[in-house]
Amino acid sequence: MLNKDKLVDAFNEIDPEYINSARDRMGYGGREKPKKTLHVFRTVLIAAVITALMVGTAYAADLFGLKSRSIPAEASPVLEALTPSGRKTIQRSYLSLNGIAGSNEYHATAEWENFRRAYEEQKEQECAANGQSPGSWFDWDFRFAESESDKEVCFIYHVGDETMFQKLLEIAGKYQLTLLTNRNDAVSLASLRKLSGVGMYSLSGDFSSAYVFEDGSFKAEGMLTVAQSTYLYELHRIESGALYPYSSAILDDMLCEEWQYTAADGSIVDMALFDTTEFDQCSTDSGEYPISSYRLLIMYDDGTSFVTVYSSWNRYEPGTEEEARLYGYASMEEAAQKNPDPYTIAEAIADSFDYAALLENEPSVSTVLALDRRAESNPEAAENLARILDSAEYKANLEYQEAYKNLRSSFDSSTINFEGISFLDEAILFNYRDQVSFAGEARAAMQAAADKYSLTMPDTYQDVCICDDEALAALGQGRLIDSSSRNYLLISYDTGAFSLYKTESLSYSMHYIPKGSFFGGLCIWNFPGAEDYTKVWPYETLSGATVCCAAYGDYDYGVVVYETENAYVFLTGVSGVTALEGTADEVDFTQFK
Predict the structure, then answer these.
(1) Which residue has the higher pLDDT, 201 or 95?
(2) How far is Cα 91 from Cα 339, in angstroms, rounded to an integer?
């Protein structure tokens, strides 16, 4: 890392013409920007290492956060990258996500990252020399760990053997930092807020997924809507006092602009915008596309909590009307209107977050982790689950699923024409087109199960590929979910039964089964009996309803069940106790009739 005097010398050596050229390349031209401080300089290209969108710089002015977070790379500091102009040797550094230079968190991150990367490279080389695969040295069963909590630490910090584990303990002890021992899935924004204690930090896009640790720190991913376009983002909110398991690798030799910006909520954030066009160019048979690519880093902290946001995007910059039409635009003017300059996009992304809300930290994750979810500790919930699984509606579904599986195995799949048939159609078997025999036998199996348990068979169904408020309202159930993301499939029956399938990341299925009606589309992993669920517990959702959660097996495969006076509701397709609870929080069970 450059010291202060060398840093000043480095800036003094930059040719003004080079700076002007850089401004032009980044799409700013001669525009005057109302910024407090602005630097344009030769800096770094980001390489994604642990997380997806990592950016940073090794050289930055003292006014900004990048210099204070940059860690010199001792392990493999040089990498090679293939660019359109040829292969280049690039210097690598690291970025601390939860501490600035001089802090215990910063020093611990520096030692761990340099050790970990050097050690992993050494072990991979040893494997190669012995004719083994590069990762064969890594023990994913963590047999060297003495306890389950130690195994969890090894999983979180990507520790592959005893040597790494002892080094991790040594570094944490040296800098008086705790190690995170629990990583919990948050499957919805509501779940993330409940676990981490964070406020409503963004209203302009969709939540995808998050990991939440026991101190309230988390890593989240999602999408933002800015100027009618969608931008992926990755967000870290980290508390001091622990060694955070993620960092980034950063590579030299890339153009960057850095400035401080007052975001829409009044917070002053540090911004860094990187032009990665040289490394991200796309080509076609007819030549290179007129694309510029950018990486954005936003940093904010109050000294104890650190917020880091990453995003990236491409900008289409056709040089001719023909190139504009190649991209589907009517003209170059339309292309320019629909592709704002990167500086405008960067600040709009920064405006999409409420940084004060991100610093809120009253997590419930520790309370959630302390819950006793064992079936024997929750006899009332266990009895409730057993009663529902013994219902006529559930047993009829189970018997039909078994008959359906046997029918499928008896048919030659090469003779079955699935053209025009969705997986939902196939599962329910109302729309089999030319599979008359197979559909007939399946229908007969459904009718047999319905007759055995005196249940009403459905005659018709409706398949809605993209669920919206109007489709939900037609169910007559009220507002069950937040359908603004429009990532749901809906299938409903004339008996009043329906299924919702969430199709984005961490998907799940929700089934509403009226009492007295046959439903054949409920699939649960291996259909365990009530006695097989080793974890059964009541859970109060954010909507105020109390549901029954149940899980079994090493990976906590599970189900959420809820009963009204008129129906049963099942949530399936989720594993992990906090994921089950988070999924339950996404549904307003009080709206079910």
Answers:
(1) 201
(2) 32
